[in-house]
Write a structure and sequence with these properties.
alpha+beta
């Protein structure tokens, strides 16, 4: 099953009540927050309402916060460069 990875890039300040409601329905509160939703026409319609504010990509499975933290952590120890 595929998932939309939706990242809020721009703030909803100054947008209409309707657009802010769509952001809330998607679960986006703060800038650079990430949510995963299954691919469906309903979610795609919500994304189209706020397409100027979000970045969207598709993934096979949603990542947890722990997965993202583990992926971003640098390797332990020293690195010797020649």
């Amino acid at each position: 099953m595929s998932y939309f990875k939706i990242t809020l890039i721009r703030s909803g300040i100054g947008m209409t009540k309707r657009q802010n409601g769509v952001l809330a329905a998607l679960g986006l509160r703060k800038r650079m927050s990430i949510v995963y939703h299954p691919v469906s026409p309903e979610v795609a319609g919500k994304i189209m309402k706020v397409k100027e504010l979000v970045a969207v990509s598709t993934h096979e499975k949603p990542e947890t916060k722990a997965d993202i933290h583990r992926r971003r952590q640098p390797p332990s120890g020293f690195v010797v460069e020649n």
